[in-house]
Amino acid sequence: MLVQHFLEESARRVPEKVALVCGSECFRYADLDARADRLATALRARGLQPGDRVAIDLGNSATAVIAVFAVAKAGGVFVLLHPATKAGKLRAIVADAGARVLLTTRAWEHNASPGGNVQLVVHAAGGAAGDDRSVALETLLATPADCQPPPARAPRDLACLIYTSGSSGEQKGVMLSHKNMASASASIMQYLRISSADVVLDTLPLSFDYGLYNVLMPLRAGATVVLEPSFTSPHQLVGLVQRAAATVLPLVPAMIAILLQFASSIRIGMPTVRCITSTGQVLPPAHVAPLARMFPAAAIFSMYGLTECKRALYLPPEQLPVRPASVGIPIPGSSVTLVDAAGREVTEPDVVGELRVRGEHVMLGYWNRPRETACVLAAGASQDERVLRTGDLFYRDREGYFYFVARRDDVIKTAGGRVSPREVEAVIAALPEVCEVAAVRAAHPVLGEVVRAIVAPRPGAELTAAAVLAECAGRLEDYAVPRFVEFRRELPHTANGKIDYRALSAAGIAGVAPAANS
Question: I need a surface site. Which of 56, 139, 256, 454 has the fewest CB within 10 A?
Answer without folding.
Answer: 139
